[in-house]
Design brief:
Structural class: alpha+beta
CATH class of the largest domain: Alpha Beta
Distance between the termini: 62 Å
Order of helices and strands: EEEHEEEEHEEE
Number of domains: 2
Bound molecules: iron/sulfur cluster
CATH superfamily of the largest domain: CPE0013-like
Number of helices: 2
CATH topology of the largest domain: CPE0013-like fold
Amino acid sequence: MNRKITCVMCPVGCRITVEMNGDEPVISGNRCTRGRQYVIDELIKPKRVLTTSVKVEDGDLPLVSVKTSGPIEKKIIMDKMKEIKKKTVGAPVKIGEIIIENIDGNGVDLLATRKVKKIHK
Ligand code: SF4
């Protein structure tokens, strides 16, 4: 196996090559150790930051954009999207407000990324 992975840990974006020597990955092209760890995580337990939106009640917008406070395991993203789809928050919503605490069970929260004002009926 010979695989190329772009490291997303910093703006440099090193193109890292992974070759398998038996069970040992041989990693090259990374300028720092964070790249090595990123590639190992990507091969074993890939993670992504989840961005989507959540329904808002009594807001000047019907939805608020949200994202996870850090990457979560890729394999749980579809289940978390179903959970988020069922969620409704009441306005007002502040930027950075926790919408779902500890969404991944490992300390990553789902946060609002914009403000929604309350409308008075
Ligand atoms: S390997 Fe290091 S320098 Fe290269 S993109 Fe990743 S974090 Fe940045």
